[in-house]
Design brief:
- With 155 residues, the chain is mostly helical.
- The chain is 46% helix and 3% strand.
- It has helices at residues 2-6, 23-36, 55-70, 90-99, 118-128, 130-138, 146-152, and strands at residues 78-79, 107-108.
- Strands 1-2 form a two-stranded parallel sheet.
- Helix 4 (90-99) links the parallel strand 1 and strand 2.
- The radius of gyration is 16 Å and the shape is globular.
């Protein structure tokens, strides 16, 4: 139906607050991703209000990622979970996160831009920041979308 409605296949599959990481939901998501050849967001869950992952949640996320990999589902290598809109030095935070990557790894940094709420406007500011673009370029970090992920993975 998505293709009928919008004329394109989705670039990737994910869900609000990662609810797809619930076991049966995640398996269904993997089946849809496999059927249509669509990447998914790396699985992770967080239940506590402070968004800290428990040991069980980390283990579940690893198991779900393993299940997706076994089913040849394309994902990023890392999912950045911190809220950049709350950081004074968001450029430093992004660069610090990317420094931890190994060669050819891909990190997803979810942003929620918009104009209605102040916190969304901060994401617009981040996306438009020329210094961030310059620093990423200087560090040889390429900004891509999920649509480009399979090209990078040579799939």
């Amino acid at each position: 139906k998505f293709k009928q409605m919008f004329g394109v296949i989705p670039t990737h599959l994910d869900s609000h607050y990662n609810t797809y990481a619930v076991e049966n939901v995640f398996k269904a998501l993997v089946n849809v991703a496999k059927k249509y050849g669509i990447p998914i967001r790396r699985p992770v869950v967080y239940i506590k209000d402070d968004h800290e992952l428990t040991a069980n949640e980390l283990e579940d996320a690893k198991e779900n990622a393993k299940f997706a990999t076994e089913n040849k589902i394309l994902m990023t290598d890392v999912l950045y979970l911190d809220y950049l809109n709350l950081k004074d030095d968001y450029i430093g935070e992004i660069l610090k996160a990317t420094e931890k990557l190994k060669e050819n790894q891909v990190i997803e940094i979810p942003l929620h831009p918009g104009f209605k709420e102040d916190w969304r406007a901060k994401y617009v500011e981040i996306l438009k920041n020329e210094q961030l673009a310059t620093d990423l370029n200087r560090a040889s970090i390429k900004v891509i979308s999920y649509a480009e992920l399979s090209k990078i993975r040579n799939i």
